[in-house]
Amino acid sequence: MAEIALNIMMDAEKVQSVEKVCDDIGMSLHEMFEIFVDRVIEQKQVPFAIPVESDPFFSEANLAELRKAIADVNSGKEKLIIRELIEVEDD
């Protein structure tokens, strides 16, 4: 099998950190990448969960609004009203 060189630009501190982890478990960074690539090929996907932070609930604008609402309730500026949830069946 022909081999090619692969250059990856990465933050130096990250490289040092991952090299330490690899060293601690007795493998080289090259071996770790080889295993990763083999798993991607075998599984036809990234072999671990990648969280998607695209949920609008967790957007910075919404979190800021929630923080303000909490501060307003805590300061007495607003009153917290607790309501029962109504269950709606999906169509």
Share of helix among residues?
40-55%
Radius of gyration, in angstroms, nearest whole number: 24 Å
Secondary-structure-based class equals: mainly alpha
- Taken from the alpha-carbon principal axes, the silhouette is elongated
Order of helices and strands: HHH
The number of helical segments is 3
Distance between the termini: 54 Å
Task: Please describe the biggest sheet, giving its number of strands, its sense, and whether it closes into a barrel.
Answer: none
| Sequence stretches where pLDDT stays below 50 over 5 or more residues | none
How many strand segments?
Answer: 0
Overall mean pLDDT score? 88
Strand-residue proportion:
under 5%
Write the layout of secondary structure elements.
Elements: H1 12-24, H2 29-43, H3 60-75
Protein traits:
91 residues; mainly alpha; 48% helix
Task: Give me a quick take on this structure.
By secondary structure, the protein is mainly α. The protein has helices at 12-24, 29-43, 60-75.
Describe the protein's architecture and organization.
This protein has 91 residues and is mainly α. The protein has a domain at 12-43. 48% of the residues lie in helices and 0% in strands. The protein has 3 helices and no strands. The protein has helices at residues 12-24, 29-43, 60-75. The longest helix is centred in the C-terminal third of the chain and has 16 residues, at 60-75. The termini are far apart. 0% of the residues are buried. The mean pLDDT is 88.
